[in-house]
Design brief:
The chain has nine helices and 13 strands. The chain is α/β, with parallel strands linked by helices. It is flat and about 70 Å long. It binds guanosine-5'-triphosphate (GTP) and zinc ion. It is an enzyme of class 3 (hydrolase).
Length: about 350
């Protein structure tokens, strides 16, 4: 036999020696890193990633004497890539920066395709998707429903915000308010307000408290107007965004975390605002229409597309009024768009 057969015990010993070697190498690398960073590091502290710039991230101290202050940090090489919203353990150095030594488990992750179409996390621990729409620009139910599907998929609680309430007084826009009622009837949180007139902003502030929020919606619905009204230090926000623009390639994906004065956080970037518009599977699409769920699996044909098949449980539910024709149309519209690409 040319190949040496190792006994289990021998392989175990070899593995153990290798493990010890790599652990020693890791400790050496850490010590070298600490020396490089200017000697002793402070004790371990909890932190929140509020922005990232390639290999560096801005970490806000969540405890200790520096609570609320921000340091630019490097991460240990053995850690995965970090995203805005990540909870981390970090140690300060004596040069106004620090090292991230651990990543806490993420409660949720928001993904976006990178330039090669690979899904990459862009934000962590978001739990609220604020879907903004308005009478103008003309809203599309299938777009709102698409965001709802994305929210279900990412396990974010959606909040439907109908902005520009002032325009609803015009008879041609009156019908839009009934959409909110439809969504409320499905069990979704809804809110009608006006960013410019200020109506309903206090309710919105209360809704955002205790959550990490992301705003999405068609261009022109008033996302920036709302965010500026909620973050009174608008200069700081505009400044932060233009700073990113200066950084070139990461402009569209670098997300920032902001604290609302009344509590709650916002994660925002041009890329984050597009969350929910990426490809979804047929299964996720169906599952994202929450009122469809009781009927799924009850069609005559296992591969039913719920379009015009005989014995379709969803079509029967539309006929009986359990599913609204508007939502069924949305489903069809989104399904067709999935099959087109
Ligand atoms: N009538 C009315 N107009 C509003 C209201 N809120 C915002 N607008 C106007 O709507 C327009 C678009 O608002 P933005 O805040 O830029 O919209 P946006 O969603 O951030 O758009 P993008 O930045 O393109 O994504 C602006 O002219 C606002 O002044 C509102 O409550 N009522
Ligand atoms: Zn069916």
């Amino acid at each position: 036999m040319s190949k040496r057969n190792l006994t289990r015990r021998q392989s175990w010993r070899i593995q153990k020696i290798q493990d010890e070697r790599s652990a020693r190498a890791e400790r050496r690398a850490e010590r070298a890193e600490e020396t490089l960073l200017g000697g002793d590091l402070g004790s371990e502290q909890q932190g929140l990633v509020i922005a990232h710039f390639g290999v560096q991230v801005d970490v806000e101290a969540l405890d200790g004497a520096e609570r609320g202050q921000v340091r630019r940090c490097h991460r240990r090489a053995n850690l995965p890539a970090l995203v805005t919203g990540d909870r981390v353990v970090w140690r300060a150095d004596n040069q106004q920066s620090g090292v991230i030594v651990a990543l806490q488990p993420r409660r949720t992750e928001l993904f976006r395709p990178d330039h090669r179409g690979q899904l990459k996390p862009v934000a962590a621990n978001v739990d609220r998707l604020v879907i903004v729409f308005a009478a103008l620009p003309q809203p599309h139910r299938n777009l709102i429903d698409r965001y709802l599907v994305a929210a279900e998929q990412a396990q974010l609680e959606p909040l439907l915000v109908l902005n520009k309430a002032d325009l609803l007084e015009l008879p041609e826009h009156a019908e839009i308010r009934t959409w909110l009622d439809d969504y409320a009837a499905l069990g979704y949180r809804t809110l009608c307000l006006s960013a410019t007139a200020g109506d309903g902003l206090d309710t919105l502030r209360r809704e955002l408290r205790d959550h990490v929020n992301v705003f999405v919606g068609q261009s022109g619905v008033g996302k920036s107007s709302l965010i500026n009204a909620l973050l009174p230090d608008a200069d700081l926000r505009v400044g932060a965004l233009s700073e990113m623009t200066g950084k070139g390639t990461h402009t569209t994906t670098t997300a920032r975390l902001f604290h609302f004065p009344e509590g709650g956080d916002l994660i925002d970037s041009p890329g984050i605002r597009e969350f929910g518009l990426m490809h979804i599977s047929h299964e996720d699409l169906l599952d994202g229409f929450i009122e469809f769920r009781p009927f799924l699996g009850h069609c005559r044909f296992r591969d039913c597309q719920h379009l015009h098949e005989p014995g379709c449980a969803l079509l029967a539910a539309v006929a009986s009024g359990a599913i609204s024709p508007g939502r069924m149309n949305s489903y069809r519209h989104i399904l067709a768009s999935l099959q087109d690409n």
